[in-house]
Amino acid sequence: MNKSNKRAIIVGNWKMNNNRAQTESLIKSLRPLVKNANCDVVICPPFTSIETAISKAAGSNMQIGAQNCHFARSGAYTGEISAYMLKEIGVSHVILGHSERRQYFAEKSSTVHLKLLSALDAGLTAIVCVGETLKQHENKTTTEIVSIQTKVALKGLRIEQMKNVIIAYEPVWAIGTGKTATSNQAAQVCGTIRKTVEQIFGSSASQALRILYGGSMNPTNCECLLSKDDIDGGLIGGASLRPADFSSIINFAGKNR
Question: Fewest CB within a 10 Å sphere: which of 24, 40, 110, 252?
Fold first, then answer.
C-alpha cells in the first residue's frame, strides 16, 4: 500500500484536562512547534475549552475537534452536546466510541453507530475508536472483536460517507497504562480493520481510509508504529498535553510520508 497517497493525521485527545487558560497556553506553545508539519493536526479539548482552542488556533494548521457527541440533534438529554452544536461553533472532528466512554459510560457499538450517523450528517469528520480489552486480548479474540465493532459502527453507511470517517485502533489494555502494543501487533489489527472495511465498501474505500493507532504512543515508540503500512497516524492521549512530545510525534508523522 502506498502511504504517500494519504496525508497522515495526529489527533490529540486532552480528555478531562486543561481549563481555558491552560488551553490558551498550550495552543500558544504548540503553534511554532507544528507550523511546518506535513500532516493533519487535530486537538480535542474538553467541551468548555473548545471555543478558546478554536480562537487561539485560528490561522494555524491545527484543527479543533471534540471528544464526544450525542446522537440526537436536540432534545431532553441533560448534559449532552449534539454534533450540530459542535459544528456551529467551528469544530471539525469528533471522537466517537473511545474506550473510556465504553468502559465508564456503558457505550455500546450500536450507540457509536448512531453517533456516527449524526456526526456525518452534521458535516463533521468522525474518529471512530475500536479495540479489545485485556481479557479479550489474552483470549486471542482481538480480530473478532475489532471486526465486529467496525462492522456495527459502519452499518448502513454509504460509500461516499467513508471519506469523512477515520478509524482508531486503541487496545483498551494500553490506554493510560503505559503499555503499548508492539508495532507488529498494532499493524496486524489495523490491517484487520482495513480488510473489514474492504469487505463492506471495496478496495478503493479501504485503501483511502486513514487508520490511527491509539494506546500510549509517544516520541520513543512513534517511529516504529507510524512506519507500518496500515497505520496512518495516531490518537494521542497523555503525550498530547506535553508540547515537545506532541510536536515530536507530529513532525515524525509528516516526515514519514
Answer: 110
- Taking CA 146 as the corner, what is the angle to CA 3 and CA 80, rounded to the nearest 5 degrees? 95
How many Cα atoms occupy the beta-carbon half-sphere of 79 within 13 Å? Answer: 0
List active site positions. 98, 170
Strand partners, 167: 128, 211
Residue type at 230 in one-letter notation: D
Our measurement of the distance from residue 224's CA atom to the centroid of its chain's CA atoms, rounded to an integer in Å, reads 19
Q: What is the pLDDT of residues 148-182, one digit of tens each?
A: 999 999 999 999 999 999 999 999 887 777 777 88
Identify the three-state secondary structure at position 142.
helix
pLDDT one-digit tens code per residue, 115-153? 999 999 999 999 999 999 888 988 999 999 999 999 999
Q: And the C-alpha cell for 68? A: 464526544
Whether 46 and 66 have beta carbons less than 8 Å apart is answered as no
Alpha-carbon span 178 to 27, nearest angstrom:
25
For the chain, the C-alpha Rg in angstroms (whole number) is: 17
Residue 241 has pLDDT above 70, yes or no: yes
Whether 239 contacts 217, CB under 8 Å: yes
* Nearest partner of 170 among 235, 77, 257, judged by Cα: 235
Cell of 238: 497523555
